[in-house]
Amino acid sequence: MNTNFHNQIKKEYCHKKILVTGASGYLATNLIHSLKDIDCTVIRLSRKNILPPIKGNAHIIDFHGDIICKETWERVLDEVDIIFHMAGQTSVYVADENSVDDMAVNVTSMLLLLTVCRDKKIKPIIIFASTSTVVGIPEHVPVNETFFDQPITLYDLHKLMAENYLKLFCLHDWVSGATLRLTNVYGPGPKSGSKDRGVLNQMIQKALIGESLTIFGTGKFIRDYIFIEDAVNAFLSAPMNLSEINGKHFIIGSGEGKSIAQAFALVAERVKEKMGISVSTEHKLPPADFSPIESRNFIADSRKFKQAAGWDSQYSIKKGIDLTLQKYSSGLKK
């Protein structure tokens, strides 16, 4: 985080009360750590009873609760200024197997949050973490906010439903907020709870212990990999520019496209150069239940959010992989 941006964040969030849902998750954990040295109050909402302690200037309040229970929202929302809604089920495959449960976690939770805000007549800024795959399989790249949304999985359909609930409540001025649709996020942090998320992190960790990197199919499909600090900074930027982002959705990515094969090869190259560990890549046939959403090309055109919030990605995939290798390798040595 550069000095100017850090100072802006410190000024904006000082003395604010911030609720972060899904507080034990990968994205939320990193965001909370970005706030820990600011004189603010952070409520960590999680289903877990015990979360790791965080040292810093922020006053951390841990709240154990289920986001699909209205009582949770009624108890936790008083005097909250900003909500980063990051809780949810994140696996395409789990959503297919348990579609009703997925809808409850990813849609009903949003509707309950919004309804309680409206009924209590409180108006926090809500920034919702969604996914770039809501658009479906785009015909060309890069992808911007003008593309028609055609979700092809239950997971993406439910994410879009939650987005639209937020837009509707913003339209009626019951709440304020926006949705950030993330591309493929990677970088240091806790392990994702879903096997089909954080794939690049998984490959980095495999490479560090000398395991070969598995590519399903040819690996020709293009992905936009965004470093975790860039993703967190996008979320922190959004509430500071409310008039420009309110009631909208934005695509957040690096704007740099790499095929899956290229990205995995770069992991192998960097771990060889930085750690002296040689690893190979191997191609395998995709599993029988491989989701059709895996066969997409995606590069983000994030200019709309850059113009609205003054945000920009700072890390190339090479730099991001190097920083992730450094962090994970230090953990292995302990």
Largest sheet: 7 strands, parallel
Rg from Cα: 19 Å
The overall pLDDT average reads 95
Which range best describes the helical content: under 10%, 10-25%, 25-40%, 40-55%, 55-70% or over 70%?
40-55%
Secondary-structure element pattern, one letter each = HEHEEHEHHEHEEHEEHHEEHEHH
Count the beta strands.
12
Structure notes:
This protein has helices at residues 3-13, 26-35, 70-76, 92-97, 99-120, 154-171, 199-208, 228-237, 242-245, 260-275, 303-309, 317-333, and strands spanning 17-21, 41-46, 59-64, 82-85, 125-131, 176-182, 184-186, 213-216, 222-227, 248-252, 257-259, 281-284. It is an alpha/beta fold and 334 residues long. The chain has 12 helices and 12 strands. The longest helix is centred in the first third of the chain and has 22 residues, at 99-120. It is globular and about 55 Å long.
In short, what is this structure?
The protein is 41% helix and 18% strand. It has helices at 3-13, 26-35, 70-76, 92-97, 99-120, 154-171, 199-208, 228-237, 242-245, 260-275, 303-309, 317-333, and strands at residues 17-21, 41-46, 59-64, 82-85, 125-131, 176-182, 184-186, 213-216, 222-227, 248-252, 257-259, 281-284. The mean pLDDT is 95.
Keywords:
334 residues, alpha/beta, 7-stranded parallel beta sheet, 41% helix, globular
List the helices and strands and how they pair.
Elements: H1 3-13, E1 17-21, H2 26-35, E2 41-46, E3 59-64, H3 70-76, E4 82-85, H4 92-97, H5 99-120, E5 125-131, H6 154-171, E6 176-182, E7 184-186, H7 199-208, E8 213-216, E9 222-227, H8 228-237, H9 242-245, E10 248-252, E11 257-259, H10 260-275, E12 281-284, H11 303-309, H12 317-333
Helix pairs in contact: 2-8, 5-6, 7-10, 7-12, 10-12
